[in-house]
């Protein structure tokens, strides 16, 4: 499994993922679809490992070539 995500991509995924998880944890209890925030775990994990399975399938690579 080689890295296919660049630094900016990883930072953006991490920020969005954390925001979604925080929404799930601390969002208003009146919101019935608050569970959607737990989808934020996926971008956090992909940012942490630097590899996105969807990028592999689609042939996308945002990191610099060695």
Automatic annotation (TrEMBL):
Residues 1-65 form the Inner membrane protein YgaP-like transmembrane domain. The chain crosses the membrane at residues 12-29, 35-58. It holds the Pfam family YgaP-like_TM. InterPro entries: YgaP-like_TM. It comes from the Bacteria. Keywords: Membrane, Transmembrane, Transmembrane helix. This is Probable transmembrane protein. It comes from Polymorphum gilvum (strain LMG 25793 / CGMCC 1.9160 / SL003B-26A1).
């Amino acid at each position: 499994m080689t890295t296919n995500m660049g630094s900016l991509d990883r930072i953006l995924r991490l920020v969005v993922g954390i925001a979604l998880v925080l929404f799930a944890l601390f969002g208003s209890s009146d919101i019935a679809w608050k569970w959607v925030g737990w989808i934020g775990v996926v971008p956090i994990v992909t940012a942490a490992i630097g590899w996105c399975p969807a990028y592999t399938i689609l042939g996308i690579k945002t990191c610099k070539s060695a």
